[in-house]
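Recap from last week: sequence in, structure out.
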Amino acid sequence: MQFGFCYIPDYHERQHGDYRSWYERLLREWQTADVLGYDAIWIAEHRFPGYAFCSTPVVAQAIADRTERIRIGTAVTLLPQRHPILTAEDWAAVDLLSGGRLNFGIGRGIFAYDFAAIGVNSAESRARFEEAWEIIRRLWTEDDVSFRGKFWSFENHSLRPKPLQKPTPPAFVAFIATPESYQWAGAHGMHLMVAPFLLKSTRQQSEFLDLYRESLAGAGYDPAEFQIVANYHLALVEREDQLSGADQYLYRYLDFLERANANQKSELDRQQYSAYATGDALSKDVKELRERRAVVGTPQQCVDRIGELADACGLTGWMFHINYGGVPHERVVEQMHVFAAEVAPAFSGQLESVASATQYPQESPSFPAPLAVARAVPRFAEGRFPTGGELACESANGATALGANLADALGLARGARNMTSHAVGFWRSCVLFAANKLEIFTTIGSRRCTVADVARELRLDHRGSEKLLNACATLGFLEKHGPFYRLSKESRLFLDRSSDRYLGDWMAHWADMMTKGNWQRLDESVRTGRPVEIADSAARFDKDRDPLQNWVVGMHEMGVAGHADLVASAVSLDEVESLLDVGGGPGTYSIYLCQKYPGLHATIVDGIEVSSVARQLVREADLRDRIHFAHLDFRTQALHREFDVVLLSNVLHMCRKAEALSMLHNAADHLASHGQLLVQEWILRDDATGPELASLFDLHMLINPDGDVFRLGELREMITRCGFIIRRVISTGGLYDLIVAEKRCA
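Predicted structure tokens:
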């Protein structure tokens, strides 16, 4: 007997918050399922707003990236609604990148909204479904495929890469209430997924499955070799008198489905979906659902119900619907643990947990320990199933007096927690700075390491190492699985010295800024409007690293980490011969642009101490004959020659507005007619309240070099005043944005 979870969740903004936070909680639930040894996570594709997922290959790969062994299933991929070549490509890549963990579930679709959103007629759903599956199957198993169909045609196409599993990933087909569909699945030798909660009775489901087995046997297959996986709602409680607490989530979920069904953009074709038109599917009787077609109750009652339903329908596996109707994240996680410890062993022994019984991961502070360890999950007060008003402050018709007081208390407690989180925000920086200084990220590298491994190799205290590694895992710099730690995807990219995108010196620069002490004396700068005079020698977080080197090399790392690529891709310099790179620092942008455009020559303007790093990088890039250096103050001095392009990269914020205008005027004087000006900068919104990092960096310019981060409208006006026509403003999504302008003709 196999056990997993099917995710067709309904999103409620008041309950779940923003989508990013909600997705992060979903990912933690999926990690929990993996660690506890469940067989599969299944995700559904729909396009009705707030229901399931519309980009399932992306979500599936996110699951694969954060899990070790659990299989990743689609429940289902809607074949009629997309070109089958694209579907075959996406899911072959997921199977490959997940290490062959894909269960490929397919279906026609049951919501008119989905068909209408894509512009596909539901009357064509069966024909499109069958044609799409034939194409996908052939692309996964053959080369030079040609196909002539009613909906799709192509010649001599070979798919690369093909799935890792051969000949194909296990293929499951999902059907609900159409007898012909069950017969088709059997005739084509497909595994089956069913959703009995959408039917009127278990008997109805059993009759459909009999049709499926008869068709398997008629086509020469042994029905015993095929899986039938069923989707049932799960609600584990401690006592029977708590069942009413579980009902509220079932009611909310079925109410969501009813509203979704009532707000369709069109109607399903009555011939293709006759069961839905007659009411034989999408049943909404909560009481009947809970009592007969859901797994609800105490652990022993759930054991009994699973046995009863498995016998009635001949099921081989279960995909429990566990996140529905706003069930709180903590409750979802708790039920996963309870089921693993008290229900699953009755059918197949303990689930094969990734972690041992004594060493389990704490993926987030809210993760309880597995119940396999003496039922260690903390229970809610008095073992109650919490109501929405009590846990989520979400009672629709007002809570009781006690519930209302609790809601107020929860609101106050969360507000105090948020204020505390802001107050100790420097803790997060210190964790990153210390781990970077100790070379923890580079030491772990591509390996999985224990605390003992790290402590031994770096000669650190075991207790101190454990606390720091756990903090890094809490903040997302590391991932923890059992006793093992490994780098997160971003840490592998940016914090491991072996990476081409390493940002360790950039991190060290900000550690130096913290050590210098300007931020700790911010109140003094606000009173006077000037930086506090502190010797640069105070800015040394790591006595073995030179602060100037950290700053200059850090700027280079930031360019290499993506911004140089953005600048190089934002403009075409094919016909350009000369570039003036003002404040070029380590020369990163000149090097990138000269490498991309062989006919380009660059002149870097900056201080002598900064240019020493740039000269070394230019030598390493073998560009000494095309990149040259000049040392002058560009606010007041000139080179007395013209260039095709002037790049001002992160220099305007180093000075006040009058000096910034002088620099822009000087840029215009150095440009040929119709020459291009590229301004890369931290840029504030016009109300100066964001983006967050730009707003905070503007404050940094008060306490450190006494400059200003300009607002977008202000910067536009300044550039235009100095003789330019703005052609593009590019919001990069990174630290800096880019303005492309052209010198106005005289």
